[in-house]
Amino acid sequence: MSLGRAYSVAVAGIDGQMVEIEADIGRGLPGVHLVGLPDTALSEARDRVRAAAANCGEQWPDSKVILALSPATLPKVGSVYDLALVVAVMDAAKQIKPDRLGDTVFLGELALDGRLRSVRGVLPAVLTARAAGWQRVVVPSAALPEAGLVGEIEVLGAPDLRRVLSWLRGEAELDSPSPPEPADAVPGPDLSEVVGQSEARWAMEVAAAGGHHLMLTGPPGAGKTMLAQRLPGILPPLTDAESLEVTAVHSIAGILPIGRPLVDHPPFVAPHHTASISAIVGGGSGLAKPGAVSRAHRGVLFLDECAEIGTKVLESLRTPLEDGEVRIARRDGVARYPARFQLVLAANPCPCAPPREADCICPPAARRRYLGKLSGPLLDRVDLRVQLHAVGSSALMGEAGESTEVVRARVAAARAAAGARWREFGWHTNAEVPGPVLRQRFRLPREALAPLEKALRLGVVTARGADRALRVAWTVADLAGAAEPSRDHVTTALGFRGRGLR
């Protein structure tokens, strides 16, 4: 009886857990038995790994082989364990040197001819290995750019199984990741291309400076989609930590570009208005996959024609908006994904949506019912609401407005002021600050709070709406270069909550 070991990583959501793979070669009829709650893809690995080893010229044990994946109670999903399974069997058969196995993690799927194929979730798997104190990780060569984003751990790549086994025998060397190339500035749509709509442009600037949610209503062709598409351009670039978070989610979703995997700009995600709850929040069979709210993490989630989206789909956004993450329970476990995004809603004022409001043929009840899908609790979480109007000929033929670069500079200055103020608390934007902190520790003078107190007495805003108005007031003050919000700043913030649903 011979026993071998190798190690891999099980990824659930963006969290990972180390998996120990034991191979036992004992007496009995030839065959491979896999235990440890494998799913269908992993169960099929018995034939894959045996064929891959044979086609690479390796001697597969001609007896009973038991492969156990621990922890035994953790569901194992996918083909990421293929390489580690073969290594464990070769270790049990005494065909490789065991000196490198104790500090190395193996990731990758095997083709029948022994080629190593990349898998989803390589980045979070490498991050898990580093956090667990492992010294080295071996991945497919195609995944080297992605795995190489993680520092403080040795990352090696191999094109096939033959190279990995030769390395374990001390006969060959594996590839190392190349230094990442500096990211090129990707020119996006410029804000100067949007004509007119000065109020909406100002709201966009406030939303970007404070990380606030935004709703745009207006007739078709007024510029709602154009404005939303230009919001990521005026947001600051992602920090190194944020880039790894976003890249990890995109790795699990399988949407990373080949060769340049690092996501260093705020993503922009715009699902169709017929998308389901699973497509928006995340879901699927087995282990839940990330949805649009997670793919938009640290970026913008744009829901165009939001009045056409199902009510249940819209209501599913309430928890991510408050918590900044989603937890989805499925058959193979609970997946946790970050979902701290900026929501931009866009809607027409009525079902018929004529270019001119005077041409509307909808009865008043139909107009109310159309936007009635947006519940009060959901709208209460939207800080800025703006009504757009049809663009006149003077604006269309007039001079272009400020460019993205000019607005982005003001946004960066406002964010820097907010970051310096909240740094000791661990917050980065005004939208992240809890209401009790603004009402108690950073309480404004009574004169400045007078408009907010009046709105509360009249029932114009809720307690949650008052907290959100205070956050917007701090953002308006940051853009103005003020030390704290004044009465005018609070009035401006309250005005944003009363627009857009007339």
From TrEMBL:
Belongs to the Mg-chelatase subunits D/I family. ComM subfamily. PANTHER family: COMPETENCE PROTEIN COMM, MAGNESIUM-CHELATASE SUBUNIT CHLI. Pfam families: ChlI, Mg_chelatase, Mg_chelatase_C. GO terms for molecular function: ATP binding. Residues 210-392 form the AAA+ ATPase domain. InterPro entries: AAA+_ATPase, CHLI-like, Mg_chelat-rel, Mg_chelat-rel_C, Mg_chelatse_chII-like_cat_dom, P-loop_NTPase, Ribosomal_Su5_D2-typ_SF, Ribsml_uS5_D2-typ_fold_subgr. Keywords: ATP-binding, Nucleotide-binding. This is ATP-binding protein.
